[in-house]
Amino acid sequence: xxxxxxxxxxxxxxxxxxxxxxxxxxxxxxxxxxxxxxxxxxxxxxxxxxxxxxxxxxxxxxxxxxxxxxxxxxxxxxxxxxxxxxxxxxxxxxxxxxxxxxxxxxxxxxxxxxxxxxxxxxxxxxxxxxxxxxxxxxxxxxxxxxxxxxxxxxxxxxxxxxxxxxxxxxxxxx
Length: 174
Hints:
- The chain is an all-beta fold.
- It has no helices and 13 strands.
- It has strands at residues 16-22, 28-33, 41-47, 50-51, 55-56, 66-75, 81-89, 97-106, 117-120, 127-130, 136-139, 143-147, 153-158.
- Strand 3 (41-47) and strand 4 (50-51) form a beta hairpin.
- It is globular, with a radius of gyration of 16 Å.
- It starts with 15 loop residues before the first strand and ends in a 16-residue tail after the last strand.
């Protein structure tokens, strides 16, 4: 609360392993993994003193079940948000049909979309970053995938050496 005290707990979404990030205006985006098989990832945003409706981000599929793991969120100060995750369908992780690295983008003043996209098939994300210009990067164990200013994900940049890419930094100028 604005007076510095804690409010009573509030259930904002049924799910597991929540992650959250906020922008400079105090809008908070929370991402939760829904129970396995029930739809993957969902998100809610706190803005203007209220929680907006829950949004399912999972890549559209005809599968009976969806399994999501390794998800990340990045928010730039203005409020643009990118969420990325690894997704498999129909069976648990060891047996399912692998979709790969999936990403969703939300402009600071808009809705999620225009659509959730598969950035790379048969890969898993390790981190996501976004700079002050809106460019985003997804890291997996050895590649970097880049989202440019026009919203298109570009072919991966091969890491200069064959090692696990486990960290990176971002800056406001890209």
